[in-house]
Specification:
heterotetramer, A mainly alpha (313), B alpha/beta (192), C alpha/beta (228), D mainly alpha (1061), A: 313 residues, mainly alpha, C: 228 residues, alpha/beta, 5-stranded parallel beta sheet, 36% helix
Chain lengths: 313, 192, 228, 1061
């Protein structure tokens, strides 16, 4: 309680600055991704600043509609979810604005807080009354539940080895060179984490939720104008936060802003490059995929962690 | 009855239609491929054609039945071929032929809120309808390509004498139509 | 035409007085008594009057953003839609202009009518157009949208799209090549940047006329009550 | 007054009856009735004097014992005579109000026989003379044959013949035995014989001769008592003779025979026949109950039941005689059986339906009859507070302490079988009016049955004074109010709920005054849970009172039993409370629209759970435990078995995977408000049991045993984890809102079970936190769903939709509920999940942690579905007029919402309580609570207030933004959505709700093929087949029965003679 009440304006300002920076960076990464995808498809592609234009345009829309209270609130949930999770992750160890509110809880808090935005989004989609939006949510939840399994297994293996849920502690444990990164310390759990991260990022082949060709854009089908702009901002920072979490858990965290930016970018691109070459899975295929190999890797990762712990003692 | 080996064309009286269709179905023509209508305006009759296929022996029968234009009514075949419902619905809409006992008669198929006579009847003047209902943009110029048809076929060669002349009536008909249509041709007029 | 019931939307919008025009360039707020009636196009009643220079600058930025981020609702009603596809692929790549296809009218800015419009389709197109958030633009593709094209004498296709929807840019041809489409979109972007693409405002200003025209051709006007 | 009168008066009346009959049938019946009434009144008047153990011995004709016939009249005799007189009066009443009374009772002629039967029975009870015993036995037997034969049913005649056939053999044996015994001892006085056998010792009488004598007597009596395998004719008798007659027979002939057997016990004990009798009795108990499973005819089923109960008494008799088991306990069992069985038989007779199928729904129109039947059934299966419970409890406790502890197993197994067929009967009788095929048309009076129901209840309540604790006032208040409301069920529901609220509040005040509400004590903690849950549910009930008339009273009875259970001071109190809770909640579940079958399942599994718990308690009691605190002193295998049995019992009651099949139905089909209580509070009672006993066991256990990673809790942990994931998965696939919540509830209890199974302070803290949290959330969710069901009239989610616009308060309640339940920060569920994961990782149960994390993600699926398909999406046209729930209802929910919000911000407040509770037993807290509100554990940290502050702050910022946007946005109509520019069809067609997670179902198809339900069905089928096969043993053929008798005698001979050493 006191820790929260003691925050001063300066600190909050720093946090706000870092949030804005993260949104900007997230949008920029989005632009780069579009450019990269265009190049892969031998197109010229939009300029890298295109997402800024899109978001600005959406905020400049003259009119917008709403379907009800929850429709109204969903973008708020989404944005709060994105920013909240960003603030709960220490992006750069020891830098005040970039550690945000991470003193409030550990990695479990971060993982569960991820659902906050998704839940709001899903509720807004439900309020819109559009069947396609709800179909997308149904598929998305199915997929989410399945990739969370390997991810939690990887996380459990990690915590078993590191001995703490605290993200700071996890980063500390990986200090001292690439070899200490958890990705290499326990490659099995690392693979499980990498694979489940694909699902988390919802790029192809796991983009059944947004599949524009069959269920027009999924949950945000009915969203427009500022609502959509808010959502895009939320999604941008959410992507950054997820990548940062992955970076902290598996890639040893970051000690400076450029390092964080590079690592986040690399993590992001992993999902993009995989997505560039794989067609979309159906929902049940995706569920089955995550419950097979990534889960086996996760279980093997835990076994390996236990073995290493046993050998150490 | 005409036949060219795999495709047979036959005509049947209205009273024998159902029996003949069932016969054909029993004979192996189990598939109703298409139902279509010809408007013999001059004869005052519609000819409804049922195209039936035998998927085993690759035989096709085109069974035509002529009905008077004044009382365009037929028994449905949807009890034999359920897919006929759609054909019958469409024919009902486009030609105004009623199929007794077919379930979706009178339900719009393509046209929504159509009030005029069924548009596929030959006595329906589509151009007139268009002029009455849809406004044209001034300055439109259109060239009737039918004129070029005749011109191309006029270019005779000395080898024509040896060319097979299967359809002598075709050119004549086209010419008739050309003449007939000339009166309402908006092709080279300018609106307003 | 002998039927007086057809009420004409003026082919050309009469040039408004210069001050009004200037206002319009920056998302004009026409003094329309209709603004409460219109569920989609609520024209910001709470607009705060800022200094002119500020408004001009802001409008420039807005229009530039809008012009460079056109989200397209491609309504492929006829054969014209086939020429839209190459536009998205590697050879022509409309993405380089910031254009992107969008599967729902709620998120689109440009409605492309890709060919002739039968009455049945027209009904849906009107719905789609009305579900788009403002500002929104319509691009008529091919001769069919201009004067009926090869369906000029058909009993079930309209001949002149702008009687029923405000068209900002026509692209002629049967069919127009993708290059022509690009040229058309460039034109639209230019108009947007200059604040001249005001079809959606005209639609609102003349909504009665548009509705009369629409209802006249659409035989069973069974549009849901929320569409006026 | 002289006890001889009890023989003389009926005898005289019997002689007078033919004379009086000349004055008319009415006079004859009057005379008989007066006689029974006189006997009854005289005995009852005598009872107080005999209460202190006084004994009256009468020697007839003035001759002392060896020569004259001695009669003895003590408390036991008085009770038995009173029973026989009461039963005679009752049968008389039941028969005489019947239209065709002559048909089955033999008319007034029959009354003579009835009178003679009473004479015989009373004599048999009182006599102390061996030959006299034989004479009275003959009188009774002949009266029985005669009664059987006077009925007009040919079955009765045949059965009577078979009965006589075997009875003759028995008589002959007994007579031979008596003669030989007289030859050996020179006396016919029972006391004299016993004395001579005892005093003389083995040398005085030739051992072999004695053995032969005893064999004859013993065998004769066993044939007379109709133990297995000789019970065939007796059961046929039930099938063929009027139930009223059978009720009389049970209360007179049978009881007298049993008592006569008891009197002969000293003689039998000359040779140690304890084991022989126990085997015979035990086998009779188990097998008769087993065979009864397949009975489709009600009266025959009751016959098997009588045989079984008799077997139990025979089994316990030698132990009672040797003092291993108190004789009072056996007496209680006998009295309980007599009262209940007579009542049930009259019931069966009055209803007049022969087969179980015909019984379906006959009581639909008569709630009083249903209640009465339920009371009688509960009495006969030995539920508290009926005397049978006390008898069984005392007997079993005594068994557990003696050398025959293993015999508890067949007793419990037989009792469970008894549950099945009795509650199946009750289920059919309870089929509600709308499904019933026929309504009750009693052909006879139900008054005697009701009267015996009340007597048995009164007797039980009188015995319940053993349960006095500090909370007795509160229990009595609640129970009294419950009984009043039960009677006053016709009052308006709102008023009844208001009275209930007052009762709950008053009892809460009393408990507070008695100091039972200290939150840091285990009992106080759970007492608060009970009271809070009851208060909320009743408060909500004022808004939407249940329409069932008996609901209100039963609910208060349930709360009373819960208070009793939680505040129990000893194992007896705990178990009595547990069983009371079981049957009160059973009756409440049966109140639902389709309550019969789900309630039946509920009862079976609850019964099994109860017996497992009882087993655990008995193991502990056998090891010398007297209070709950003593459980800490258990050690070695006793501790282990106690833990295993208690754990298994609580796991069954908590509907752990495998035993979960009762839960979804029970939760779903109960009255809506009760579902909330069932899920919120009742499901916490097994957890209470785990905490109550577990803390003690842990405190007493070897630290090395529970300290390691894979201790005894590991299996329980997996059970909990499998429950959590399995039920969660199933919840996601339900179409019924309540069923979804039911599965969810079961799954969430699985989390708590895992927490407790950890046996670490952190795990227990987590589990307790989760318990409280889950209670609040489930109350909230079930209440909200109850409101929705109440308003829309459907439970199927896909038939709802868009209700957010009509019931916004319910939407908010469900929203808060699902966020909290799913564990999404910042609401309270997260802290619970966080604690459990921390505890699991700390204990190094990694795989269980993985399973639980997976389960918690799947929980999103059903939670989202719950809120989405009901409240979001398309509003159906038929729900346009739906209104919000009543204000009181919303107030009750607001209480819960505030509780959730409070818990979300200050979980440390609750954790302070739970750690204070568990720390003394573990010696450590496991959780560190920092001054700033942070919760620190060995692996992680959480500042719930900080998270809440952050989220609320951000939310405020962005909410302000969209509020600022408000004027710009326009509300559009319900159907104004983008459907490929098409006009949307009806709301029903675009509300995506049915089979919501089809892809998930497809992906999990291989897992979902596993069906526990099918497993239980197979088990039931096998049990049924065994019963069916075994039942063929009774061929209905007199020769066969005689053959059995011969074989039995042969075996008995070997058994008895081998005992001679």
């Amino acid at each position: 309680m006191q820790a929260v009440l003691n925050l001063d304006i300066g600190y909050l300002g720093l946090c706000a600055l870092s949030v804005i920076g993260a949104i900007a960076y997230g949008l920029l990464i989005g632009g780069i991704i579009r450019k990269v995808m265009a190049r892969i498809q031998s197109r010229i592609g939009p300029p890298v600043w295109q997402p800024y234009l899109d978001v600005a345009k959406l905020f400049f829309q003259r009119t917008s509609i709403r379907h009800g209270m929850m429709f109204y609130l969903a973008p708020v949930f989404r944005t709060v979810g994105g920013i909240g999770i960003y603030l709960l992750i220490p992006i750069v160890a020891g830098m005040p604005g970039l550690a945000g509110f991470s003193f409030n809880g550990d990695v479990l808090l971060v993982i569960y807080f991820m659902f906050f935005g998704c839940l709001g989004m899903a509720l807004g989609a439900g309020e819109s009354g559009h069947p396609h939006a709800i179909i997308a949510v149904s598929r998305g939840l199915s997929q989410m539940s399945s990739y969370e399994l390997p991810f939690s297994l990887a996380l459990i293996a990690l915590v078993a080895q590191v001995g703490t849920f605290s993200i700071g502690g996890i980063i500390e444990a990986q200090a001292g060179g690439i070899g200490n990164w958890y990705l290499f310390m326990n490659p099995l759990a690392g693979i499980a984490g990498l694979l489940s991260f694909l699902g988390m990022q919802m790029y192809s082949p796991f983009n059944i939720v947004l599949a524009p060709q069959e269920i027009p854009i999924g949950p945000p089908t009915e969203y427009n104008s500022t609502f959509l702009g808010l959502m895009m901002s939320g999604r941008a920072i959410f992507g950054v936060a997820k990548s940062a979490l992955f970076m902290n858990l598996f890639l040893g965290g970051a000690t400076s802003i450029p390092e964080a930016m590079i690592k986040i970018f690399v993590v992001y691109m992993w999902a993009v490059f995989v997505g560039a070459v794989f067609p979309r899975f159906r929902a049940e295929q995706s569920v089955r995929f995550f419950l097979r190999w990534p889960t086996w890797f996760g279980l093997a990762g835990i076994a390996l962690a236990m073995l290493m712990k046993h050998l150490a003692s | 009855m005409q036949s060219d080996g795999w495709m047979t064309q036959e005509t049947v009286a209205l009273s024998g239609l159902t029996r003949r269709l069932e016969e054909l179905r029993g004979d192996g023509h189990v598939q109703l491929t298409l139902m279509t209508v010809t408007d013999w305006l001059e004869d005052g009759e519609f000819e409804v054609s049922y195209i039936l296929t035998d998927p085993v022996l690759f035989r096709t029968v085109i069974l035509g039945v002529r009905i008077p234009r004044e009382t365009p009514e037929l028994p449905t075949v949807s009890d034999i071929w359920p897919q006929a419902v759609t054909y019958e619905q469409e024919i009902n809409e486009m030609f105004g032929i009623r199929f007794e006992g077919s379930p979706r008669q009178g339900v719009p198929f393509i046209l929504e809120g159509w009030k005029d006579i069924p548009p596929m009847r030959r006595d329906f003047d589509t151009l007139k309808y268009s002029v009455e209902h849809y406004e044209d943009r001034p300055g439109r110029r259109s060239i009737d390509t039918r004129r070029f048809v005749g011109r191309v076929s006029d270019e005779k060669s000395f080898t024509d004498a040896w060319e097979p002349r299967e359809d002598d009536g075709r050119e004549r008909k086209l010419a008739d139509m050309d003449g007939g249509a000339a009166g309402s041709d908006r092709g080279e007029t300018t609106d307003e | 035409m002998k039927d007086e019931k057809i009420r004409r939307v003026p082919e050309r919008i009469e040039p408004a007085p210069p001050d009004v025009l200037k206002d319009r360039a920056y998302d004009p707020v026409p003094a329309s008594p209709r603004r409460e009636v219109d569920p989609y196009c609520y024209l910001g009643a709470t607009e705060v009057q800022q200094p002119l220079a500020y408004r001009e600058a802001l409008a420039t930025i807005r229009n530039w953003c809008r012009a460079n981020s056109l989200w397209v609702m491609a309504y492929g009603t006829g054969c014209g839609a086939i020429e839209l596809r190459p536009l998205m692929t590697s050879r022509f790549d409309m993405a380089r202009f910031g254009m992107a296809p969008r599967p729902t009218p709620r998120q689109s800015n440009v409605l492309i009518i890709g060919g002739y419009l039968s009455l049945k389709t027209l009904k849906r197109v009107i719905r789609a157009y009305e579900q788009m958030p403002a500002p929104k633009w319509v691009v008529g593709l091919g001769s069919c949208t201009i004067n009926g094209g090869m369906y000029w004498d058909s009993y079930y296709t309209i001949n002149k799209l702008d009687l029923y929807l405000p068209v900002d840019v026509y692209i002629s041809g049967c069919m127009p090549r993708p290059e022509a489409l690009i040229a058309g979109f460039q034109e639209l972007m230019k108009k947007i940047k200059q604040g001249e693409a005001n079809g959606w405002n005209e639609y609102l200003e003349n909504i009665d006329d548009y509705k009369i025209n629409q209802k006249r051709v659409i035989g069973d006007w069974r549009m849901p009550d929320y569409n006026w | 007054m002289n006890p001889v009168l009890f023989i003389a008066v009926p005898l005289g009346a019997a002689f007078l009856l033919p004379l009086v009959r000349r004055m008319g049938d009415r006079a004859a019946r009057g005379l008989a009735g007066l006689t029974f009434a006189f006997v009854l009144a005289a005995v009852v008047a005598w009872l107080p004097a005999l209460g202190n153990g006084a004994m009256l011995t009468v020697t007839t004709g003035g001759w002392p014992a060896p020569f004259g016939i001695a009669l003895r009249f003590g408390l036991a005799e008085a009770v038995l005579i009173a029973l026989s007189a009461a039963a005679a009066l009752g049968s008389f009443g039941a028969v005489s109000s019947r239209a065709g009374r002559d048909a089955t009772s033999g008319g007034v002629r029959g009354l003579v026989i009835v009178l003679l039967m009473v004479v015989g029975a009373n004599g048999l009870i009182m006599t102390r003379d061996l030959f006299n015993t034989f004479v009275f036995l003959e009188i009774v037997s002949i009266a029985t044959y005669a009664l059987a034969a006077t009925g007009d049913e040919s079955r009765g005649l045949e059965a009577g013949f078979k009965y006589m056939f075997l009875g003759a053999v028995a008589s002959a044996f007994i007579l031979i035995g008596i003669a030989m015994l007289y030859r050996l001892t020179g006396t016919l006085s029972i006391d004299g014989i016993a004395e001579s056998l005892m005093v003389g010792g083995a040398g005085a009488v030739p051992m072999f001769a004695l053995g032969v004598v005893l064999l004859f007597l013993f065998a004769g009596f066993l044939v007379e008592l109709k133990v297995f395998p000789l019970n065939g004719p007796a059961i046929d008798l039930y099938d063929g003779v009027s139930p009223a007659v059978m009720a009389l027979t049970v209360a007179t002939a049978l009881n007298a025979s049993v008592y006569a057997f008891w009197k002969l016990m000293p003689i039998f004990r000359a040779v140690d026949l304890t084991l022989v009798l126990m085997v015979i009795g035990g086998a009779t108990f188990v097998l008769a109950n087993l065979f009864a499973l397949r009975q489709s005819r009600v009266r025959r089923m009751l016959g098997y039941s009588t045989s079984a109960q008799l077997g139990l008494i025979v089994m316990l008799m030698p132990l009672a005689h040797s003092g291993d088991v108190s004789a009072t306990a056996v007496g209680l069992l006998l009295v309980n059986h007599t009262l209940a069985k007579a009542g049930l038989l009259w019931f069966a007779g009055s209803v007049g339906k022969q087969t179980l199928v015909e019984w379906k729904g006959v009581l639909a129109g008569s709630p009083a009859a249903r209640l009465s039947l339920a009371a009688l059934v509960l009495a006969i299966v030995g539920m508290p507070p009926f005397p049978g419970f006390w008898g069984k409890w005392d007997a079993l406790v005594a068994l557990s302490r003696g050398p025959h502890a293993w015999w508890i197993i067949p007793v419990l197994a037989g009792s469970l079988l008894e549950f099945i067929y009795y509650f199946r009967w009750l289920r059919l009788a309870h089929v509600p009016a709308e499904d019933a095929e026929t309504k009750l048309e009693p052909t006879g009076s139900l008054v005697p049955a009701h009267a015996f129901g009340i007597i048995v209840l009164g007797a039980g309540l009188a015995l319940s004074s053993r349960l006095v604790t500090s909370s007795t006032d509160a229990v009595l208040t609640l129970a009294g109010a419950g009984l009043v409301l039960l009677i006053a069920g016709q009052l308006p529901g709102r008023l009844l709920q208001f009275l209930s609220l007052a009762a709950v509040a008053a009892s809460g005040w009393m408990l507070h005054q008695a100091g039972s509400l200290a939150p840091t004590s285990i009992t106080g903690f759970f007492m608060l849970i009970v009271l809070f849950g009851a208060f909320t549910v009743v408060l909500a009930g004022i808004g939407t009172p249940p329409d069932r008339k008996r609901y209100h009273g039963l609910f208060l009875l349930l709360v009373a039993s819960l208070v009793l259970l939680v505040d129990a001071r000893g194992p007896l109190g705990f178990f009595a409370g547990w069983e009371l809770m079981t049957w009160t909640s059973y009756l409440l579940v049966a109140q639902g629209q389709r309550g019969g079958r789900p309630a039946f399942r509920y009862m079976l599994f609850s019964g099994a759970a109860g017996f497992l718990v009882l087993g655990g308690i008995l193991v502990a009691l056998g090891a010398g435990v007297t209070t709950i605190g003593d459980f800490a002193h258990l050690a070695g295998p006793a501790a282990l078995w106690t833990a295993i049995l208690l754990g298994a019992g609580f796991a069954v009651k908590a509907a752990s995977a495998g035993a979960h099949v009762w839960a979804p139905d029970a939760y779903t089909e109960s009255p809506d408000l009760f579902s909330a209580f069932l899920s919120g509070v009742l499901s916490k009672m097994p957890l209470f049991g785990i905490v109550l006993f577990g803390t003690r066991l842990v405190a007493g256990a070897d630290p090395a045993l529970i300290g390691g990673t894979y201790g005894p809790g590991y299996a329980l942990g997996w059970l909990g984890a499998i429950t959590a994931i399995g039920m969660t998965l199933l919840a996601a696939l339900q179409e019924d809102a309540k069923r979804l919540l039911a599965y969810s509830s079961v799954g969430q209890i699985g989390y708590a079970v895992v927490g407790f199974a950890l046996l670490t302070p952190l795990g227990w803290t987590a589990a307790l936190y989760h318990t409280v949290n889950h209670m609040i959330i489930k109350l909230l969710l079930f209440l909200a769903i109850a409101a929705v069901i109440n308003r829309t009239g459907t439970r199927r989610m896909h038939e709802m939709g868009g209700l957010i616009k009509k019931m916004p308060a319910q939407y908010i309640a469900v929203l808060i509920g699902i966020i909290a339940l799913s564990g999404v920060p910042p609401l309270s569920g997260f802290a619970g999940k966080w604690l459990i994961y921390n505890a699991l990782i700390e204990k190094e149960w990694y795989f269980i942690a993985g399973v639980l994390m997976f389960a918690s993600v799947i929980a999103f699926l059903y939670l989202f579905r719950l809120i989405n398909t009901i409240f979001l999406g398309q509003l159906k046209p038929r729900h346009r007029e739906v209104r919000e729930a009543p204000a009181v209802f919303v107030v009750a929910q607001a209480l819960l919402v505030f509780a959730i919000m409070g818990l979300s911000m200050f979980p440390d407040a609750l954790l302070r309580v739970t750690t204070a509770m568990t720390a003394p037993f573990f010696g450590a807290a496991g959780v560190e609570l920092a001054a700033d509100g942070s919760v620190l554990v060995s692996l992680g940290y959480l500042n719930a207030f900080g998270v809440m502050a952050m989220v609320m702050g951000l939310f405020a910022v962005f909410f302000a933004w969209v509020l600022f946007l408000g004027p710009k946005t326009t509300k559009v109509g319900q159907l104004d959505i983008v459907m490929a520019a098409e006009e949307p069809p009806a709301p029903e067609e675009i509300h995506y709700a049915y089979d919501f997670y089809r892809p998930y179902k497809r992906a999990f198809a291989p897992v979902l093929r596993v069906s526990v339900e099918r497993g239980w069905s197979r088990f039931a089928a096998v049990l049924s087949a065994v019963a069916e096969y075994g039942r063929r043993f009774y061929t209905g053929d007199a020769q066969t029965y005689l053959l059995y008798a011969v074989v039995f005698l042969g075996i008995a001979a070997v058994a008895v003679l081998s005992r001679l050493g």
